Amino acid sequence: ANALFSSLGTTIFTVMSRLAQEHGAINLGQGFPEGLEPPDVIEAARAALTAGPHQYPPMMGEPVLRQAVAAHEARFYGLDIDWEREVLVTSGATEALADALFGLIEPGDEVVLLEPLYDSYLPIVRRAGGIPRLVRLEPPHWDLPREALARAFGPRTKLMILNSPMNPCGKVFSPEELVFLADLLERHDAYALCDEVYEHLVFDGRPHVPLMTVPGMRERCVRIGSAGKTFSLTNWKVGLIVAAPALLEPIAKAHQYLTFTTPIPLQRAVAYGLGKDDAYFDGLKADMQARRDRLARGLEALGVGVLACAGTYFLSADFRPLGVDRPDAELCRWLTTEAKVTLVPVSAFYAQDTSDSPPPAHLVRFCFAKRDADLDEALARLGRFF
Ligand code: PMP
Ligand code: GLN
User: Fold this and answer.
1) Are 127 and 55 part of one and the same domain?
2) CB of 167 closer than 6 angstroms to any ligand 1 atom
3) What pLDDT does residue 23 have?
4) Residue 90: CB within 6 Å of ligand 1?
């Protein structure tokens, strides 16, 4: 398939947010939270901006943030991380993903990817010269298809990308699934790029389990986090990478030529934020879970089919029980222009140009990380429409 960026379309998030604005629709499409921004973290950035300095920070990131990341890894996951050699600060998880893919993939390497997938993975894998091996998870349960996955691994597999909790379907991989993956990675001497940007958004009392904590995986995993998600500040674009030195070194080489650094005030404020007490992290989870439940209950009351969501700030829904049988992309346009509610089609999270069977076209993604009033108004608009 085509690796040229010139052949790519505009990301679905931009397309749908633009359309929402044009039509005065409530935007439950693009994933960004509203009403959860922690004022003290913002204040820490303000103070750091005033204090300066205003010139380049160290290429690997501010020491105070790298130390805070190491402390976070120990506190939440029991991981012993060397902040000087095993932590890299990037401008968002988006850059972290690109750094890792450009740093680790050599042309011809195979990369195992699970569909549905976040939209930045495939273009970068291909541009780095990687050969994607796509494996599909099937709704409504999105269980790991173990046989298909085992078949996707081979002698040329360099790495797999694992997004848990998983956008867009809200799946959290079970400990058993992680052990199965660890076994495959070990047998094929492959790495895992673990996109864990929603690590603090796992619900119903379950813990987040990084693949990196599974026995044998400490040296094979690149763990990616995002301050945008952890502090509901997606504008900030502070990404975090934790990996063993042998993996982090080539990744840092990519980073030095992609962005080199990230603004100091934001790094220092995120360092402060990572040290916040358990009440903050528990509160974020509880608050987001309440929003999930508010939206899910409202949709169910309308007769919409709601799929389970164990993490992230997204849930998928099926409008067929209402007698609506339009393909998801068309449904999302129609709901934006007519009902004034914007969602994102789940089919956008599949490779668009393979000869595989077409992706499911009956699911739409709701972002529930919004103010109660907006969730309620969106439900009211849908209620009037159907
Ligand atoms: N990975 C996933 C799965 C995401 O949903 C997002 C959200 N935007 C990102 C990466 C990118 O994160 P960031 O905004 O920190 O670049
Ligand atoms: N990750 C967010 C989502 O899934 C949006 C990121 C973006 O707009 N690029 O909606």
Assistant:
1) yes
2) yes
3) 98
4) no
Please give the ipTM for the structure prediction: 0.98
Residue 1 has pLDDT above 60, yes or no: no
Q: Which of 277, 304, 331 is the endpoint of a domain?
A: 277
Q: 85 falls in which pLDDT band (50, 70, 90)?
A: very high
Cα dist from 386 to 24, 320, 338, 379, whole Å: 19, 12, 11, 11
Stretch 275-290: mean pLDDT, rounded? 98
- Across the range 281-305, mean pLDDT stands at 98
Residue 335: the pLDDT is 98
For the sheet with 157-163, list strands across it.
87-90, 239-242, 221-226, 191-195, 157-163, 110-115, 131-136
Percent residues over pLDDT 70 in the chain: 99
pLDDT value of residue 222 = 99
Domain extent, residue 104, equals: 39-277
E strands, 188-262, are 191-195, 221-226, 239-242
**d(Cα 343, Cα 333) in Å, to the nearest integer?**
8
* Ligand 2 atom 8, closest CA: 13
- Report the pocket of ligand 2 as residue ranges, CB < 6 Å: 11, 13, 30-31, 167
Residues constituting the chain: 386
- Ligand 1 within 6 A of CB of 165: no
Query: Phi/psi of residue 189, each to 5°?
Result: 50, 50
* Residue 29 CA, closest ligand 2 atom number: 10
Residue 94 CA to ligand 1 center (angstroms) comes to 6
Helix (H) or strand (E) holding 280: helix 278-302
Over residues 68-97, mean pLDDT: 98
Instruction: Please tell me if the CB atom of residue 226 comes closer than 6 angstroms to any atom of ligand 1.
Output: yes
Average pLDDT over residues 141-161: 97
The residue whose CA has the least distance to atom 2 of ligand 2 is 31
The number of folded domains in the chain is: 2
First to last CA, the chain: 41
How close is the Cα of 190 to the center of ligand 2, in Å? 28
Residues 247 and 317 in one domain: no
- Smallest CA-to-CA distance from 90 within 223, 205, 210 is with 223
Whether residue 363 contacts residue 348, with contact meaning beta carbons closer than 8 Å, is answered with no
